[in-house]
Amino acid sequence: MATSAQTSAQTSARTIAAPARARTAAGSATLRRGQGFQHGGWFVAPFLLLFTLFVIWPLLRGVYLSFTDANISGEGARFIGLDNYREAIEDPLMWDSLGHSAYFTLLVVPCITVLAFLLAMLAHHIERGKWLWRLCFFAPFLLPSTVAANLWQWLFNPGTGMINHVFGIETPWLTDKSYAMLAIVIQTLWWTVGFSFLLYLAALQGIPGHLYEAAKLDGANAWHRTVHITLPMLRNITGLVVALQILASLQVFDQAVVMMDFLPGPEGSTRTFVQYTLEEGFTSYRVGYASAISVIFFVIIAAVALARMWLLRNREESAR
Fold this sequence. Notes:
The protein is mainly alpha-helical. The chain has helices at residues 2-65, 83-89, 92-125, 130-138, 145-155, 162-167, 180-205, 209-217, 222-233, 235-250, 254-259, 273-283, 287-319.
């Protein structure tokens, strides 16, 4: 009887002490999290400071200037409300430059996605000299934009360039509006495909090999393995490549400006949205109007990014 009473007392004591220990552990965990946040905040603070100084503040400043008639000197700016936005909507040059950027994007994104995938497949399955192939495919991406643009400007030169001489043609690549944008697209494919190639190559190396072995045992040939295993396994990375290329292509500027000697191309055929913004701000000295069209472009880019996130979320929910 005494033993049973002692056991019951010990059990009751443990039952009472358990919530207290749980509360103590929870309090300690909360304290540790608070201390971790406090100490981690000092590591994040320099980044937050620079991010606020060079991203948040210029963004807010640009939005404010878009409602003024500010010039490049920054003096005498008057608040004019939505006048800049009304002018932008009625500005044919703005819509033309936006159309050129969209046309460039429509050409580059599918081509660079397919080309990067094919190059990654080649580099992944080739046996001899694998490192050399990977280096050759990725090396152009390491070049500065001005170097790559100047190189291809020389290659497309009808008098001294190699493109026309090698292929025996006389195409005025950089002086004809029918070919100028195509020349920029070709240069961009050669210059930037290495980044998407690297993403695809890393994703290919992450596909389990036993899937291909099982498919071989079932009699699937190379085409069937690619269609039913490789492409589905690369669906997420393909979505990432497409999204990144869309955002980068819409902001095309460097190669178009350098290859056309800082001009808008023949009959303005290569004037991109970013270039037009630069012309309005630093050539026409209309900082307020340039800020307004920059805000419009920011909204377009944000809409594209949000649309991509929405499509990805819907696809994941449907897959479940």
